[in-house]
Input
Amino acid sequence: MSPIEISEKVNSTLAAEFELELASISPDKRLIEDLGLDSLDSVDLIAALERSFKVKCPEAEARQMRTVGDIHSFIERLQAAKS
Output
C-alpha cells in the first residue's frame, strides 16, 4: 500500500468513525485540539485502525500520536514491518 493510499484510508477511517468532514482532515491537524477527539476516542481510533489495516497497534506507541500525520507515519511503519 502506497503512502498516498494509507493517508486516504486513514483519513476516511477518521471521518467515518468520528463523523468528521473529510475535507477537515489533513496531516497537520491535531487529534485533540483540532479534531475534538478525547482520551476515550483514542481507544476507538486504535481499534478502527487495527480493523481497517489488519495490523496490531502497540498501545505505547499509539499513545504518542498527536496529529493525523503521526497516524499516517505510524501506519506506514506498521505496514512496512508487516511486509
